[in-house]
Write a structure and sequence with these properties.
With about 280 residues, the chain is an alpha/beta fold. Helix content is about 45%, strand content about 15%.
Amino acid sequence: MAQSEALIRDISDTAFLAAVYRARETERPDAVFHDPLARRLLGTRGEQIADSIPFSNRAAWAWVMRTYLYDQFIVEQCRKGTDMVINLAAGLDTRPYRMELPPTLQWIEVDLPGILSYKEEILAQEKPACIIERVRLDLADVSARRKVFAELGSRATKCLILTEGLLIYFSADQVRALAEDLDAPRAFQSWIVDLASPGLLRMLQKHMGPALEQSGASLKFGPEEGPEFFIPSGWRPVDVRSPLKAAARLKRLSFEMWLMSLLPESNGHQGSRPWSGVCLLSRL
């Protein structure tokens, strides 16, 4: 714990943790995606943070599969005419640089000033594949985010929202409020979220929570309703994909986890089973 306390200073440092697994995946001969900028962005602290949380390293497949499934959804939605992507809490994500995207696509990164300034400095000489814009915003500022959402919505016709690795840090009420705010602009048509079951949330709270809480971040959101949680707020699940099933298909699991992957899919209400899903939501 002493090492974790020194390494994870604030919520933005969790972005370094995610970048570690993208960098490690890139260096594999059988990589399912390539993020050549991840290693440069994470520096030395990223590896130190990851190695201070052994459970996170053991579950590296989950971090990789989450990114892989988000990538799949993004490609599919761009083929269907998405003209703007808004990446909330973008962290050290580099999709505008590493993916083949339409050059006219508007890609908006929203995050706290410190992490965006850090990333801008590192990537200053890199050329993105599409139009990229960064918005410095604390998403907890409800009034400010509503203004940003309204302005961005006026510039798009078919917008895709990303919240990769974000919602688990919110309470159910905060997620509900965000969903309602995202439902307001008519151009916001699709939303990709990643969810944990109550059972998985408890496991993460036990094994990762103490380290993450040093950054002021608590793991909170694991709805019993599963993807259906979002329906009362104006969003319905249209496609739910399992990181565990994807990892089994790509041969990334231990024998024990592979056995778990043989269980029937569970995309409805959730309980003690450690389930996760990457979900494509569409506005009602």
